[in-house]
């Protein structure tokens, strides 16, 4: 929807996946797991793992340069950079500043948002709103994660699920008739903050020998509880967004869900009444890359020419916090 006579369009998309591929069979050598279990329970076949000298900002910078190239822009044109990540390069400064430095976007204001796997949906809504106020003419938004840096590679219940990668999009102010951004619905519930988290290393439990001895620096998750809440909150966010836009679910060409588990995606699609073939899935190749899953999927859809002018695309995500949300796009 257009506010203040200012439309918001997606001017370009980009993504970057590290070269190293780790298959399910490779993980069999690390933990007591097997390819059949991982495929059946999650749909994942392989994931990418970043090199030692590739922090989240390096992945995000590469995706950003590709998105800027697609938008026909140079880094100096960028007015705002927002990064979504739960694997920042450092506790501070924020990772958007590191991306800024890497790509030379010297005119940009930079900040990061930690909303876990919902991060990209959050920053899409934030950036679009800031453009709609007239404060900025464009924004580079990036979901980037090096989840391999917070995974306990001895814990089979989590290490098989995640991967590294980055996706980016350039949003730009435009004429109202070229508007792409329809609306968003975001939600959070801090009461569930301990079912998906990194227990140690922050200010409530600073890094210490005890943290290391008890492996508290790694991602911890109650898988089944997360599963149920994920389906319910994604369905609610998607339904409310569609209702807010006043469209029918049949009008959605692509449901682009957070890529955590094919069983979650299929349940969400079924409950929304979206045919399975309209729910985009690429987690087979990349696993769960948290805030990066949706922009990577968007870039793959755009680059493969799978979307036409007038098509609706619905991003929907769920993550630690809890956080959840959806963005509705009408492609132009
Ligand atoms: N390989 C083989 N066996 C395994 C593995 C593994 N990698 N991991 C667990 N198991 C075993 C368990 O020990 C258990 O064995 P038991 O029955 O002898 O005790 C059995 O498999 C079943 O374990 P469950 O945890 O009940 O398996 P479930 O069907 O729930 O699948 C999974 C687990 C895949 C984690 C699922 O619960 C899930 O996908 N949950 C949602 C997770 C998610 O989406 N997380 C990301 C959220 S986004 C974010 O913010 C990061």
Description:
The chain has a 5-stranded mixed sheet with strand order 1-7-6-4-5, sandwiched between helices. It is built from 11 helices and 13 strands. The two termini are 14 Å apart. With 332 residues, it is an alpha/beta fold. β4, α4 (95-103) and β5 form a beta-alpha-beta unit. The chain has helices spanning 24-28, 35-42, 56-71, 95-103, 119-132, 156-159, 209-213, 223-245, 262-272, 283-286, 293-303, and strands at 7-16, 20-23, 46-49, 80-84, 109-113, 138-146, 164-174, 181-188, 196-197, 220-221, 252-257, 312-319, 323-330. The protein folds into 2 domains: 7-178, Thiolase/Chalcone synthase (Peroxisomal Thiolase, Chain A, domain 1, 3-Layer(aba) Sandwich); 181-330, Thiolase/Chalcone synthase (Peroxisomal Thiolase, Chain A, domain 1, 3-Layer(aba) Sandwich). Bound molecules: acetyl coenzyme *A. Acetyl coenzyme *A (ACO) binds next to α2, α6 and α8.
Topology:
Elements: E1 7-16, E2 20-23, H1 24-28, H2 35-42, E3 46-49, H3 56-71, E4 80-84, H4 95-103, E5 109-113, H5 119-132, E6 138-146, H6 156-159, E7 164-174, E8 181-188, E9 196-197, H7 209-213, E10 220-221, H8 223-245, E11 252-257, H9 262-272, H10 283-286, H11 293-303, E12 312-319, E13 323-330
Parallel strand pairs: 4-5, 4-6, 11-12
Antiparallel strand pairs: 1-7, 2-3, 6-7, 8-13, 9-10, 12-13
Bound molecules: acetyl coenzyme *A.
Acetyl coenzyme *A binds near residues 38, 41, 116, 157 and 290.
């Amino acid at each position: 929807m257009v506010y203040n006579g200012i439309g918001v369009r997606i001017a370009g998309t980009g993504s970057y996946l590290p070269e190293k591929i780790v298959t399910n069979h490779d993980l069999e050598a690390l933990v007591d797991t097997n390819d059949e279990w991982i495929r059946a329970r999650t749909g994942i076949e392989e994931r990418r793992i970043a090199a030692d000298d590739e922090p989240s900002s390096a992945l995000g910078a590469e995706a950003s340069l590709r998105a800027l190239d697609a938008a026909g822009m140079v880094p100096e044109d960028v007015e705002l950079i927002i990064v979504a990540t739960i694997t920042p390069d450092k506790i501070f400064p924020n990772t958007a500043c590191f991306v800024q430095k890497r790509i030379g976007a010297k005119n940009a204001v930079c900040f990061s948002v930690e909303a876990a796997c919902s991060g990209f949906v959050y920053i899409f809504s934030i950036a679009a709103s800031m453009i709609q106020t007239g404060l900025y003419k464009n924004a580079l938004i990036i979901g980037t994660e090096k989840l391999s840096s917070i995974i306990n590679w001895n814990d089979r219940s989590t290490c098989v699920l995640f991967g590294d990668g980055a996706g980016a999009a350039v949003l730009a102010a435009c004429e109202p008739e070229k508007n792409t951004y329809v609306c968003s619905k975001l939600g959070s519930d801090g009461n569930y903050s301990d079912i998906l988290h990194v227990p140690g290393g922050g200010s409530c439990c600073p890094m210490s020998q005890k943290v290391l001895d008890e492996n508290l620096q790694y991602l911890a998750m109650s898988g089944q509880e997360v599963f149920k809440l994920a389906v319910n909150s994604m369905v609610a966010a998607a339904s409310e967004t569609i209702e807010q836009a006043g469209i029918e679910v049949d009008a959605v060409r692509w449901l682009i869900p957070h890529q955590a588990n094919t069983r979650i995606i299929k349940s969400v699609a079924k409950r929304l009444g979206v045919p399975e073939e309209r729910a985009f899935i690429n987690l087979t190749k990349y696993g769960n890359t948290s805030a990066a899953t949706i922009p990577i999927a968007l870039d793959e859809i755009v680059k493969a020419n799978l979307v036409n002018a007038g098509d609706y695309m619905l991003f929907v995500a769920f993550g630690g916090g809890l956080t959840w949300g959806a963005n509705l796009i009408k492609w132009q």
